[in-house]
Each structure stands twice: as C-alpha cells, then as structure tokens.
Design a protein that fits this description.
Blueprint: H1 5-49, H2 53-66, H3 71-84, H4 87-99, H5 105-121, H6 125-133, H7 141-154, H8 158-170, H9 177-193, H10 197-210, H11 215-227, H12 231-244, H13 249-263, H14 266-279, H15 283-292, H16 296-309, H17 313-321, H18 328-342, E1 348-349, E2 356-357
Antiparallel strand pairs: 1-2
Helix pairs in contact: 1-2, 2-3, 3-4, 3-5, 4-5, 5-6, 6-7, 7-8, 8-9, 9-10, 10-11, 11-12, 12-13, 13-14, 13-15, 14-15, 15-16, 16-17, 17-18
Organism: Hydrogenophaga crocea
Keywords: Cell inner membrane, Cell membrane, Iron, Membrane, Metal-binding, Repeat, TPR repeat, Transmembrane, Transmembrane helix
GO molecular function, one term: iron ion binding
C-alpha cells in the first residue's frame, strides 16, 4: 500500500497548532504561579502581624515551594521565632529547609547550625549535641565546638569538655589552657570522691604542669597531700602558689598558716605573708598572720596594722572580739552589731555578673564564667 502524502501535509499544521497551544498553557501557568507567590508573601505577613504564626509559616512554605529564592525568608522567620521563644516553630522552619533537595551546601550548613541553636535554646541538649556534631568540617565548625563546650560544661561531662577545648586550642581559637586545667581539676575531684588517690594525684600533677599560674591546681594538690599526711609537701605547694599566682595568695593564706604551724616553719611563712601584706593589705592575710601570732598581743597588733593601712569593718570586728571592755554586756551588743554589719562584706563577688557568695568559686554559679571571682572580699573591691 502506497503512503499518502496528503496526511503529512495535514499533520504538520496540526502539530504546530498543538505545540503553540501547549506553550500558551505553560505561559499562563507560569503567570498564575508568579501572581500567587506575592499573594502568599502578603498572606504570610498578614498572619504574622495578626500573631497567627502557624498560618504564617504555612503561607511562607507555600511561597517557597514555587520560588527557591525565598531561603533568606525562612532563615529570618526561624530566627524570629527563636528570639520570641517559639522553639517548636523555629525547628519546623529549619527542618523544612533541610528537607529541600535543591538547597545549596552553604545554606544547608547554615540551616543545620540554626537548627542546633533552636535545640540549644530550647534546652534539648541531646538533640543540640547531635545537630552540632554534624557541623564538623563546615564553616560553622568553631561556633559548633564552642556550643558543644557549653553543653558539656552544663552537663558536667568534663572529659568531653576537655577534648573539645583541646581541639579549639589546637586551631588557635584563643587560649584554652586555663580552661583545660579547670576541667582536669574537676576530673580530679571526681576521682578523689571515688577513692582513686593515684589517679587524682596524676591529674593534679598534670594541672600544675600545664597551668602553673592557676591557683586552683596548687591548692587542690596541697589539700590532697595534707589529707595523705604530707604536711611539708602541702606547704610547699602553697608556697609555689605564692610564687606562681601571687594575686591568689589570700585564698591560700589560712591553709598556709595552719601548715606552717604543723611543720614548724612559721617564721618563713610569716615573713612571706608580712611582705605580701605590706604591698597590698588583705583581710585573709591579716587573719592568717593573727593565727601565726604566738601571743594574743601579736594578733591584736596585726589587726591594728591592717586598720592603719586600710580601714576595714571586718578587721575591726575581729579586733574587737579579742578585746575585753569594762562593760561586758555592752561589748556583746557592740560585737553582735559589728558581726552583722561585716557579714555581707566577707562575701566574694563575681566580676562578670555580680553574683555574691560566701565561698570562693572557680566557676560562677550565676553566669558560668571561669575565674571571675577575685581572691578578695567584697569590702576590699
């Protein structure tokens, strides 16, 4: 059967017409979607202004499905929700971004970082830790490690904190030597509570080797030696503290005086404390000198020398306690008034947040800052 060319002549115009119609339909669809995208934006903005965050998110997600260039809108919306404390909504926004197949590597890392911050702010530390570990090798690696450091400190996972701090120290993200030494001290305290004396000593030896200027290491090792009956070695550690960290001497002065009396080395310790007192009068150093006094008169003179150099209600109260006035009843009332007035002045105050405490902390319970407590009392600041 011969092929009829007539059908070909009819077919070409028909194919052309169908192609033209299809192109017009695509154009109309594109125009329809282009009009719909701005409407979705405005609808989402309207919901946001009306405090309808769920509807706003749905509207913005609808907008982004037709226009991949709205990534920045998602980031802005997620950050807004996080700042407002709407962590669930922030997580939804950033998880939606991560679910997109067309997201660039840079934006994917950014979304992963934002998601980790959502979990962190919400207090979901386990999920935050998992999200932060996924940022290794990205542009957010350093920020992620710092956030992990905060998580491990809050959970008191000191070995993990030490590992992260050593990574940060290795890439020169500031010096973490002192922070690592504190982590070792925390591990030493744990080992000591568990009765692991040898491990405790090894950790503290590492502390004084790594950070000889950290008073905590010397004081902790001195306390350990004292408990083990090595009073001479314990005093040697506190004398090393006086050389390596002289500003922290007030923290060790009382222990130094007690160990000096136990070991019969009161004279050199008294000379050291008197020299420190002459340079910068300290309440704790004065009290240590009073403990070393062989006669009550010597203790009173130590208090008076302090008062001559620097007025102090705390020291005045200590001096009054050693005096005998003619009216014993009046003296008791005056002493009680002095003690009440001087009590708050004996506290330590965090230089970072102002949190006050009766005892000295190496890490502030209020703001979690390290070494933020000066070695001096509130009255001396």
């Amino acid at each position: 059967m011969d092929f009829d060319l007539t059908w070909l002549l009819w077919g070409l115009p028909v194919a052309f017409a169908l192609g033209w119609a299809a192109s017009r339909l695509d154009l109309r669809q594109w125009r329809f979607e282009s009009r719909q995208a701005p409407k979705a934006y405005f609808r989402g903005l309207n919901h946001l202004l009306n405090e309808q965050q769920d509807q706003a998110i749905d509207a913005f997600i609808e907008a982004v499905q037709g226009d991949p260039d709205t990534t920045e809108l998602h980031f802005a919306l997620g950050n807004l929700f996080r700042r407002r404390g709407d962590y669930d909504r922030a997580v939804r926004v950033h998880e939606h971004l991560l679910a997109r197949a067309d997201l660039s590597r840079k934006d994917r890392d950014r979304a992963q970082h934002a998601l980790a911050l959502d979990f962190l702010k919400a207090g979901l530390l386990d999920r935050a830790e998992s999200a932060l570990h996924k940022l290794e090798g990205t542009a957010f690696e350093s920020e992620a490690r710092l956030a992990l450091l905060g998580i491990y400190e809050r959970s008191r996972d000191w070995p993990q904190a030490q590992a992260i701090a050593e990574k940060l120290d290795a890439v020169e993200q500031g010096s973490f030597t002192t922070r690592i030494a504190h982590y070792l001290c925390e591990q030493a305290e744990t080992a000591h509570r568990q009765g692991e004396a040898a491990h405790t000593r090894a950790l503290l030896d590492e502390v004084v080797r790594r950070a000889p200027g950290l008073a905590r290491g010397w004081m902790a090792r001195s306390a350990l030696r004292s408990q083990q009956g090595d009073a001479a070695g314990a005093l040697d550690d506190l004398l090393a503290l006086a050389r390596q960290a002289p500003l922290a001497l007030p923290l060790a002065a009382r222990g130094m005086a007690e160990l000096a009396r136990q070991t019969g080395r009161s004279a050199p310790v008294r000379a050291l404390l008197e020299d420190a007192q002459a340079q910068a009068p300290s309440i704790d150093v004065t009290e240590a000198l009073a403990r070393l006094a062989e006669q009550p008169e010597d203790a009173r003179r130590a208090y008076l020398r302090h008062l001559d150099a620097e007025p102090s209600l705390v020291i005045a109260s200590q001096w009054l306690a050693g005096e005998t006035l003619s009216d014993a009843k009046a003296q008791a009332s005056v002493q009680r008034a002095f003690d009440n007035a001087s009590g708050p002045l004996k506290r330590y105050r965090c230089a970072a947040c102002g949190f006050e405490a009766r005892q000295h902390f190496w890490q502030c319970p209020g703001c979690q800052a390290w070494d933020s407590y000066p070695a001096r009392r509130v009255e001396e600041l």
